[in-house]
Structure prediction request, 346 residues.
Amino acid sequence: SRSIDLAVIPGDGIGQEVVTQGLKVLNAVLPQDVKLETKEYDLGAQRWHRTGETLPDAELEALKGHDAILLGAIGDPSVPSGVLERGLLLKLRFAFDHFINLRPSKLFPNTATPLAGRPEIDFVVVREGTEGPYTGNGGSLRTGTEHEIATEVSVNTAHGVERVVRDAFARAAARPRKKLTLVHKNNVLVYAGHLWKNTFDKVAAEFPEVTTDYLHVDAATIFFVTQPERFDVIVTDNLFGDILTDLAAAVTGGIGLAASGNINPTGAFPSMFEPVHGTAPDIAGQGKADPTATILSVALLLRHLGYEAEAVRIEEAVSADLAERDGKHARTTDEIGDALAVRVAS
Ligand code: IPM
Ligand code: MN
Prediction:
């Protein structure tokens, strides 16, 4: 019989609340014969305050044994900036070689967005997940003086660029519109820019059915707002992808709806699914957080594990739920989770 062995990292702030709803919907959507096992990991700000640890080796090892990871959100104002980001979240993405950071954007019905009523928006950003300026390759000279020099080197390898570009072409080829846009800044970042563009052009020859396009990242931000329907699949580096996907979320219904998957397509390590949003400490513990982004991340998780029909059921439930959303009565985190659990079960 089938089974899913899931690691759960609720994390900080609203992380716990939204993950509870994600698991509720996961339980509701899974067929009876699928055995779901979950193991919760206590990682994040509280753990760090208690023990000074971010991600001990023993836990990193244990996480490797699961089929997938569901993560809520990591970070707290009481922890110095970067400690948990680098010591936990990025450590997981790097250790498990999550080179595909998949971030779909869809204009859902009835959502508050400057683009409501526009033509259909349905694109996916394939953000590189293990390289670029995120590698921690930098330093500071004459620190603290008026002559301080800080560097933050963007690392781009032929291997790393080719595997993400190839994955993006394959995703584009599998979609109806078959269009792939490379976003970079190769007029200024010439070394990395040329590696990306050359790799893109080389792999393009293997996918003649895919229409290709190139945009500088600054121009891409204009089109995200003025003409988002022009995008189908976008491939870009780690930092450009980080920034573009927050913008994408803002224009397609808000960060409360944006899902993501940190994927290792080789299956060598578990992939990790998480909402794009952060811990929102200002509303934590009040039942105000929208769990939809986490629930849509559960759909990506199910798709990754081969449960396509269940993934679609969740996505259709979210569309239907949003279509009927009554803006006058704000629902609690729990109420939204309950409503979606009922929809996917029926
Ligand atoms: C994200 C976040 C992270 C990132 C931070 C918290 C390290 O902004 O998942 O988009 O920059 O990737
Ligand atoms: Mn981000």
Summary: The domain at 113-252 is CATH 3.40.718.10 (Isopropylmalate Dehydrogenase).
